[in-house]
Write a structure and sequence with these properties.
Layout lengths: L1 H28 L7 H18 L1 H27 L6 H18 L8 H26 L8 H9 L1 E2 L2 E2 L12 H30 L8 H20 L5 H24 L1
Antiparallel strand pairs: 1-2
Helix pairs in contact: 1-2, 1-5, 2-9, 3-4, 5-6, 5-9, 7-8, 7-9
GO molecular function, one term: membrane insertase activity
Subunit structure: Interacts with the Sec translocase complex via SecD. Specifically interacts with transmembrane segments of nascent integral membrane proteins during membrane integration.
Keywords: Cell membrane, Chaperone, Membrane, Protein transport, Transmembrane, Transmembrane helix, Transport
Length: about 260
């Protein structure tokens, strides 16, 4: 199973490392030091920009799906009234089937808000595998992804604000554990705050005035609190380089949702 997962992730690791190295090569060509942590940090930010720009069509499709979900709400409310108080198995099954028919008719589903996150997940996992494996690869004198052994060693030795990019709260840091802890906590707070405010904007735009018993409203409230918890808990094991990726990505999402909310 592990071998199969690694085979599935190999193309994503290759793509993630190719994009990072392309930005790294461009930055060194204009005079930035190849071994600088800031050069590698900007390379990671460049990776975010490429992936998120590629996901703009998916985001626009998500916005359209959310609009269709709003139009669907009167029909859903009518359906809930129809089956109100009916708790037998046949009624519950009939209600679920009619709900699915409504979603199909309107060309949407209650999980459309999660689509960009799901699509981005393989790239995030690939970056996590590359950056968390760099120290081991460097120690063995090996490369990882498309990084050569020299580039892996170079990345492993790089840092910003005294915190190695390959270190995390739980692993690595050496004598710089305090710097790692401070930078990691700041970015975990930043990325969870961005996620929380983004979800608030989504709810304010699409669910204002809705019935508290609305299933879509309940789903959005769950996402409002669950996603920041997931990001916060995961941040403990994420290398600093991955935290940079996720913080910038969440900031992009926040700005993107803010612009959409303003135009609504």
């Amino acid at each position: 199973m592990v071998d199969f997962f690694n085979e599935v992730m190999a193309p994503f690791q290759w793509l993630v490392s190719v994009i990072m190295l392309a930005f790294h090569g461009g930055l060194t060509a204009i005079g930035m030091p190849a071994g600088s942590g800031w050069t590698w940090t900007l390379s990671i930010i460049g990776l975010v920009l490429v992936i998120r720009a590629a996901l703009i069509p998916v985001f626009l499709a998500q916005v359209r799906a959310q609009r269709r979900m709003r139009l669907l709400q009167p029909d859903l409310k009518e359906l809930q009234e129809k089956y109100k108080g009916k708790t037998d198995q046949l009624s519950r099954q009939a209600m679920a089937q009619e709900q699915m028919a409504l979603y199909k008719k309107h060309g949407t589903n209650p999980f459309s808000a999660c689509l960009p996150l799901l699509i981005q997940a393989p790239f995030f996992l690939a970056l996590f595998q590359v950056l968390s494996g760099i120290s081991g690869a460097a120690a063995r004198g090996e490369g990882i992804g498309t990084l050569t052994s020299a580039q892996a060693a170079q990345f492993d030795a790089s840092s910003i604000f005294g915190a190695p990019l390959s270190a995390s709260l739980l692993h690595g840091g050496g004598g710089n554990q305090a710097a790692v802890a401070i930078l990691a906590v700041v970015m975990i707070l930043a990325m969870t705050a961005c996620q929380f405010v983004t979800q608030k904007l989504v709810m304010a735009r699409s669910l204002v005035g809705e019935d508290p018993e609305n299933p879509l409203l309940r789903q959005q409230k769950i996402l409002l609190y669950i996603l920041p918890v997931i990001f916060g808990a995961g941040g403990i094991i994420f290398p600093i380089g991955v935290l940079i990726y996720w913080t910038v990505s969440n900031l992009w999402t926040l700005v993107q949702q803010y612009l959409v909310t303003r135009k609504a």
